[in-house]
């Protein structure tokens, strides 16, 4: 299945909140399997993102990013737009990943008192694996 890098980032950023929750075994298995399935793509994304930051953002003598008064990274003169353009391109790249898909009926089983309730944020993270 083709998945955009931006969807992988949403999945991995949101999935941490799910690790302490109790779900039906099929849902738990799919989450764990999919974390492993997207790890390689996430690693490539993170490496490329770090290269973009090194190319476009200012660093101090210790190699740390220089931040402005709002805590945002400072860019080399006139390079912010180029960075944003390349980052958007990176986020739109599609990666072929074998995901373990769930149906909405699988997710509805979480509505039982036996399992943890899913929040809107949880559902946003799981969206990558719902058919």
Mean pLDDT: 94
Distance between the termini: 11 Å
DSSP helical segment count: 5
Task: Please give the radius of gyration in angstroms.
Answer: 18 Å
Query: Order of strands across the biggest sheet?
Result: 1-2
- Decide which structural class fits the backbone: mainly alpha
What is the N-to-C order of secondary-structure elements (H for helix, E for strand)?
Answer: EHHHEHH
Beta content: under 5%
Low-confidence stretches: none
Instruction: Describe the main β-sheet briefly.
Output: 2 strands, antiparallel
The 3D shape can be described as: elongated
Could you give the count of β-strands? 2
Helix content estimate: 40-55%
How many domains comprise the coordinates? 1
Structure description:
There is one protein chain. The protein has five helices and two strands. The mean pLDDT is 94. It has one domain. It has a two-stranded antiparallel ribbon with strand order 1-2. With 131 residues, the protein is mainly alpha-helical. The relative contact order is 0.25. The termini are close together.
Compose a concise summary of this entry.
The chain is mainly alpha-helical and 131 residues long. It has one domain.
